[in-house]
């Protein structure tokens, strides 16, 4: 039968279904088989031939027929899994049912009255055969999930058959050990099966259906406690699924082993179609959804202590019930970590390779899913985190993240990408090794829209952060605290900042310490505290190599004097607020001489008008996101108890007051523009009082810098007068050999703000991840135009 006939027959069946007012018996195979037995329709065909309006009409007007359709389609998948799909016809039926369910499920989920349908065992109205409603009948959802799992390890359908001949000895699908059929070499599996594009296509279709099953969570509003686990994921990742381990391993390996370069030959991807990429994307999406797990409310699955032997540690206490999270947290072999890290770094760097060798490799689009995966790896497996930081390989993750942050800074539709990039860097910055690694010289010349500089990865990080703060869009202001916290965390370890980076830090201090900015919102002064803490850390712990920064501080000494003499009387406060900048720019760009941008770079562009984006729930304030740890002499960290009174010691800003958008019950509303710089803050109309200014001005940690200026400024001035110098290289040479030993106050303890898991970020990750998945699945558009509740789809 031709494809056109096939489509026509399928469409006829759909019309019959929508026009029948009477329930059709489940036993009427002649009617139901039209949907899957004789058709060869692609998933795109199914979406075109089954319009949304018709699915909703059947749901409202003849619900029993929709119920029977779902029930029969699941039954066909179960039969296919039972029989092992040895014949082409069976394979075709499985694929057709899979496509049909992918189309229909979102419309079941969007209607609260139907939500329990898949979890019920009662075979709906007019079902023939009375033997189905026995005690141990499984809910429909469970039967569907187990069938998908079986079908993903079905020889000659989704995996390579191990049989030499196919004479009546077809493998018994229940007898096979699916661990021998893992899809790709990597973690816990050494054998890479020969590529088979038919298997890849079939796996992709089944994973699409699996992802659709998991998407029920999109139709529930975000909850402030993310403990409401997704029942589909919960069941699929439980011991009920005998393929949990091989499937977890297959998904992880297929993602981490993927090389879009086209088998190492540049431009090769232009010559042949890549069937692997859609599979890798779908695998990455299924993987991150199965790992959606809130560690803050449960016993954390992260594990320390080393054991060798099996791929997964067996010696540790049992982890969470979610086996995927459990397995992820127990990977511990160095070669497995190396494989994962190399794979993620290769894929994250792919868009960068594009910029200097256009079209040489296939450009991948799933970097956001990779960032979520990398986050989960670091968050759930501390050994992996330590492995990443053990060598300079962490820089292969850092540079792409900085590239994405810089590239997306002006684009309203990529706020989520900005957040996850910053969250990952915040997590890494809590470990001393990260700061140490940043001292490696930066020589890779990825074209980026930033000033040309010669220096280290620390310089790159500071310059990109400065660019985000001074030329990103308004919606990024809630991230300023995080960006500066990262710089504070690494500052005690930075051996030598370039002049470009030193000037950027002082430009930020200048911008953040203007009186109108300090007085115009209740938490703006925290940014000044963070920057002073950075300067204090570098002066106290890394003075010797940092003559550029010391010189920049001396040149801008008036900024520090103005802070020390900040007016606190009411009249001055009001005058400062009247001077408030008219521009909506958060920070003036004056006296930030950017000079030339790097060759070959394109300026960061805003989103094209009309671009779709998903709204995000709020992220918790920095005080909720992090906990303070003090670094002792031997480098170990101990947690610092938060002060009960809001009077922190010198050098640490008071607990950051959370923003309007910080975790509140209002998360279901779309994210509003937060104007941190307006004179009315989150608490309605807030007005700065003299007492308030005095309360924090007295805690500004200026002693160290004032002492430095007191000692060095006269010496520098003397050199200039004596030698008639206007040349900064002589002054720098003097500062390089200078010393402040014994002249500075006693060094303060180093304070690190380490990321801590909390339900606020768990919920943020859930909404972000599903927003990405919704927007990335456009062919076919699985969820488009359905009534999702977890986020709002907005146009820029």
UniProtKB/TrEMBL annotation:
Comp. bias intervals (Low complexity): 642-658
InterPro entries listed in its UniProt record: Hid-1/Ecm30 (IPR026705)
Ranges where the record places region Disordered: 577-688
Name of the featured protein: HID1 domain containing
Entry superkingdom: Eukaryota
One GO biological process term: response to glucose
GO cellular component, one term: Golgi trans cisterna
Organism: Salvator merianae
């Amino acid at each position: 039968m031709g494809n056109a006939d096939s489509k026509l027959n399928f469409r006829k069946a759909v019309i019959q279904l929508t026009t029948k007012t009477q329930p059709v018996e489940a036993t009427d195979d002649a009617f139901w088989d039209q949907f899957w037995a004789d058709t060869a329709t692609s998933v795109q065909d199914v979406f075109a031939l089954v319009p949304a309006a018709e699915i909703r009409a059947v749901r409202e007007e003849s619900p029993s027929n929709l119920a029977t359709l779902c029930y029969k389609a699941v039954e066909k998948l179960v039969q296919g899994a039972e029989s092992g799909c040895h014949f082409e016809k069976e394979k075709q039926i499985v694929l057709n049912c899979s496509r049909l369910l992918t189309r229909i499920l979102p419309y079941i989920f969007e209607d609260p009255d139907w939500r329990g349908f898949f979890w019920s065992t009662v075979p709906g109205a007019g079902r023939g055969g009375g033997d189905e409603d026995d005690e141990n009948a499984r809910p429909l959802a469970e039967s569907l999930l187990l069938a998908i799992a079986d079908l993903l390890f079905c020889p000659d359908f989704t995996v390579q058959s191990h049989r030499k001949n196919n004479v009546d000895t077809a493998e018994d699908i229940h007898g096979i050990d699916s661990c021998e059929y893992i899809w790709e070499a990597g973690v816990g599996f050494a054998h890479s099966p020969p590529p088979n594009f038919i298997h890849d296509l079939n796996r992709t279709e089944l994973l699409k259906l699996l992802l659709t099953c998991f998407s029920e969570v999109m139709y529930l509003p975000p909850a402030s406690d993310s403990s409401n686990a997704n029942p589909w994921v919960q069941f699929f990742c439980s011991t009920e699924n005998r393929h949990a381990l091989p499937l977890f391993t297959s998904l992880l390996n297929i993602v981490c082993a993927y090389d879009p370069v086209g088998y190492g030959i540049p431009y090769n991807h232009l010559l042949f179609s890549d069937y692997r990429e859609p599979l890798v994307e779908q695998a990455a999406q299924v993987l991150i959804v199965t790992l959606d797990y809130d560690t803050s409310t449960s016993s954390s699955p992260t594990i320390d202590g080393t054991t060798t032997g099996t791929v997964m540690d067996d010696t540790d206490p049992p982890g969470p019930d979610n086996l995927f999270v459990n397995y992820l947290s127990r990977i511990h072999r160095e070669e497995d970590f190396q494989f994962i890290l190399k794979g993620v770094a290769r894929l994250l760097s792919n868009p960068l390779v594009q910029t200097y060798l256009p079209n040489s490799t296939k450009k991948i689009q799933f970097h956001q899913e990779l960032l979520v995966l990398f986050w989960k790896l670091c968050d759930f497996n501390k050994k992996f985190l330590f492995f990443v930081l053990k060598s300079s390989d962490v820089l292969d993750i850092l540079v792409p993240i900085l590239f994405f942050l810089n590239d997306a800074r002006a684009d309203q539709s990529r706020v989520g990408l900005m957040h996850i990039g910053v969250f990952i860097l915040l997590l890494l910055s809590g470990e001393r090794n990260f700061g140490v690694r940043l001292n490696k010289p930066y020589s890779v010349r990825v074209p980026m829209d930033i000033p040309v500089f010669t220096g280290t990865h620390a310089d790159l990080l500071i310059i990109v952060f400065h660019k985000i703060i001074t030329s990103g869009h308004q919606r990024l202001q809630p991230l300023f605290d995080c960006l500066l916290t990262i710089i504070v965390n690494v500052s005690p370890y930075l051996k030598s900042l370039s002049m470009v980076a030193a000037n950027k830090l002082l430009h930020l201090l200048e911008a953040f310490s203007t009186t109108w900015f300090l007085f115009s919102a209740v938490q703006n002064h925290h940014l000044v505290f963070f920057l002073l803490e950075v300067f204090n850390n570098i002066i106290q712990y890394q003075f010797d190599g940092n003559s550029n920064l010391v010189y920049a501080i001396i040149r801008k000494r008036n900024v520090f004097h103005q802070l020390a003499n900040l007016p606190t009387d009411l009249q001055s406060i009001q005058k400062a607020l009247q001077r408030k900048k008219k521009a909506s720019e958060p920070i003036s760009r004056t006296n930030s001489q950017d000079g030339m941008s790097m060759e070959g770079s394109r300026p960061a562009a805003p989103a094209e008008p009309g671009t779709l984006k998903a709204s995000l729930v709020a992220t918790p304030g920095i005080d909720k996101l992090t906990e303070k740890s003090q670094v002792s002499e031997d480098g170990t960290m101990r947690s610092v108890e938060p002060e009960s009174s809001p009077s922190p010691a010198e050098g640490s800003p008071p607990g950051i007051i959370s923003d309007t958008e910080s975790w509140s019950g209002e998360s279901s509303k779309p994210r509003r523009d937060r104007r941190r710089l307006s004179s009315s803050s989150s608490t309605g109309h807030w007005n700065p009082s003299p007492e308030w200014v005095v309360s924090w001005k007295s805690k500004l940690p200026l002693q160290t810098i004032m002492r430095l200026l007191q000692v060095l400024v006269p010496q520098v001035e003397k050199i200039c007068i004596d030698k008639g110098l206007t040349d900064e290289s002589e002054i720098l040479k003097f500062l390089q050999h200078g010393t402040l030993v014994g002249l500075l106050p006693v060094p303060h303890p180093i304070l690190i703000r380490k990321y801590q898991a909390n339900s606020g970020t768990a919920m943020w990750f859930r909404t972000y991840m599903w927003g990405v998945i919704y927007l990335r699945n456009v062919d076919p558009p699985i969820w488009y135009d359905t009534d999702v509740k977890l986020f709002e789809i907005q146009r820029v």
